[in-house]
Amino acid sequence: MKIKIKACASVKDLCGFSEREFDLPERTTAGDAVRRVAQECGDITAGLDSLLLAVNEEYCRGDRVLAENDVLALFPPVSGG
Amino acid sequence: MKIKIKACASVKDLCGFSEREFDLPERTTAGDAVRRVAQECGDITAGLDSLLLAVNEEYCRGDRVLAENDVLALFPPVSGG
Amino acid sequence: MKTIRLQNDPIECAAALAATGTVEDGAVLSFTGTPRRDSAKRPVEHLFYEAYEGMALKEMDKIADEALAAWPITDCLIIHRTGRVDPGQASILIVVSARHRDEGFAALRFIIDTVKKTVPIWKKEVYIDGSEWVSDRV
Amino acid sequence: MKTIRLQNDPIECAAALAATGTVEDGAVLSFTGTPRRDSAKRPVEHLFYEAYEGMALKEMDKIADEALAAWPITDCLIIHRTGRVDPGQASILIVVSARHRDEGFAALRFIIDTVKKTVPIWKKEVYIDGSEWVSDRV
Is ipTM strictly over 0.85? Predict the structure, then answer.
């Protein structure tokens, strides 16, 4: 199934893309998707105390099961304000 | 000795003056001065939970001994802001 | 730095806010107090603020000094209106500038709470058919 | 009422403050966050804010709704800059309007604290000779 993965801020720099489509097996979790990105791009959590995940613009955990056309965002702890 | 008494807000309305000079005996206290004003003007604490006193623009208590040319201010609890 | 003012004219909140704080600061906090139209039993037409001016300025100055001593804030502004103030207009503006927001919140809270306790200013509510000093209602 | 905005342009704090609150309110409180020039080990030339825009707006909206539900505030504004922000310029402005100051203080504090925890916006410090994401420093 097609999943769009979006990377933000320092994670984008580590991934080398800001948005890319991945073809992943059915019932892939957000955590599986992170490991898949890491296989292709190397360690995407370097220097981070935690990697945050969101599916379709809502925060989620690594065990969240993805569905076709989901947008999974990977990003570092926020630092706005 | 000459003491200037200043009355503010509702206390001014009750006293009927905003500033008046009184001739008071040496070693008169602020509390004595209040009683003297009350003798002349009637109850100046009507409707107040407390009457506040200041001598020369600094808060004081009723036992404060006045000196020649002091300015004694009498006023209700503050309500600014 | 501190700015302490009593004034009859409307408070230019925008200009005052823009003038407070420096590029070194992290947080600028402001409190604007506006008289409420329906705080009494009857509709308030406008408010009238009387200040014991010399002493009020001294007390405001003391509060600013205490805040500047108690918290690492770099700038502090307190402006209070006197005379007629219409509902919706600001009767008081307080601005503090601090490197960190904790300090800014604490200082701002201290200043407004203390102003309401110690600064000799009194509010009179003026109705269509009369008026009443607010502090009389005990 | 609420106003939620992400914008590249400088925040017009004055206009935003003037537009928030009604004649029924007693207290308008504002928080302005400005990036500090010397927060890092080396002098910051400017800041760059990246937002995950759709999600950031949603999260800001949730925070405003939570504040409006938790406290009797009548108006709430949250504006965050994106892109380049110079030291001394506001990166965020929050304004709340409430009948009583206790509620205003609590709501304002909740909003800024929560924005800094949940809204997907990241700050990059740009130096004369490089740049660094602020959240990388753990």
Answer: yes
